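Memo to structure team: turn this sequence into C-alpha cells by end of day. - J.P.
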Amino acid sequence: MNVLMVGLEWFTLRPGGLPRYVMDFSNAWIRSGHRTKVLVRVPPDAGSLVLPHHVRGVQLASGVLATRSAWKRVFREELTSGAYDVVNSHFAYYAWGLLDEAPDVPLVTHFHGPWAYEARVESQGRMAVRREISFRIQRWIERRVYRHSDQFVVLSKAFRDALHGLYGVPEDRIHIIPGAVDVARFQFQEDTAPAKAGLRIAENRFVILTVRRLARRMGLELLLEAFAQVRASHPEAILVIVGDGALRDELWARVEALKLSNCVRLEGRVEDDLLPMYYQAADLMVVPSVSFEGFGLVTVEAMACGTPVMGTPVGGTEEILRAFRQDLLFRDVSAVAIAEGLSKAISGAIRLPGRSDVREHVLNHYTWPHVVSQVAEVFQMAIGGGAPRAERTVAFGQFM
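Reply from structure team:
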C-alpha cells in the first residue's frame, strides 16, 4: 500500500509527541513492506538539511492563505508523480490544502488532539480578541478537513470523545489504536546506577523524571509545588525536567522562589540519543498533565526502559496506567495529590512495580508491528468504502 502522509515537522527538527509518532510510524510502515512519502514543514533557513529518503520538506511563507497555497502546489506535484492509495493526515492545518487536489483518494485522519482548543489554552497571554479570532479560524480549518475524511485514528478513548464531542465526528468512523514505542532504542535497564553515573547523579539519590514540552497544560507548575512538599520529608529526592518551551524562564523563577535550585535540574532539550539514558536513570517518571493528554508517548518510552510511571488521571495517561497499575495514578489533578503520591512511592507505601514487569507490559501492548497492522486495516476500510469527496459529508454528524 502506498500512502501519502502529512505531518507537522520532522522529529529531528522539532521534538515532540506528534513528530515522534509520525517518524516512528512511517519508519515502521516501511519496515512492514509498505511505501510512503511523508510531507513535513521545514524552516525557510533549512539550507542543506538532510531528511530521510521518504520525507519531503516543505518551506512555507507566513500567512494562512500563503500556507494553503504552498501545500496545494506540493500536493499537486506529489499526486501527479505517484499513485497513492490513501492520504493520511496527522495535522489538519497542513492537510487543508489537499481537499481540492485529491477528490477520489481516500483520506484517513490521525487525530492527535484538538489543535484549536489546545492553542487557545497555550495563548492565554494574548489579547482576548486576537485569541478568539485565531481559535475560530483554526477550528474552521479542522472542521473542514474532518468533514472530508473517510476514517479517523485516535490514540485513546479520551481523544475519541474529544473528536466526537468537539467536532461532531460519528463514532463509527473513529478507531482507537494506541501509540507505540521503538523498544530496540528505548532499551530495558534493570539497574539505574550506570545511567545515573552517566548523568553525574549520585547512586543514592531518588530520581524523579519528567519529559515534557514546557507548556501550560503539562502541569509542571503543579509538579514543582508538589516536589517542594516532598523534599521536606525526602531530601534524597531530586527532580529532573527534560524539555524546552515558552515557560522555561517562568519555571526556573519558580524553582528559585521555592528554594529548589539545588535539587531540580532543568535540562532543556536533550539529544535524542541521550533520552533513553534519562529514562534508565530515573527511579520514577511523572506525567503531571492537566488537560489534552491524548496518549503520552513519553509514558510508554519510560516504561520500555523499565521505569515506573505515575501520572494525573487525565486522558491517555489515565488509560495507560489504569490498564497496568491503578495505584500509579494520582487521586486528582492537584499539587497536594501529586505530593501525596510521590511521597508514598519514595517511602515504599506504594510498592512500585519491578522494572522487568514494566518493560513486559510495553512489549505486550505498545509495539509498532501491532499498530501498523491495525492502521492498515483502517486504510483498507477507507479504500473500500471511500466516497467521492463531495459526497462524504452527507452522513456526517452536525458540527458543534
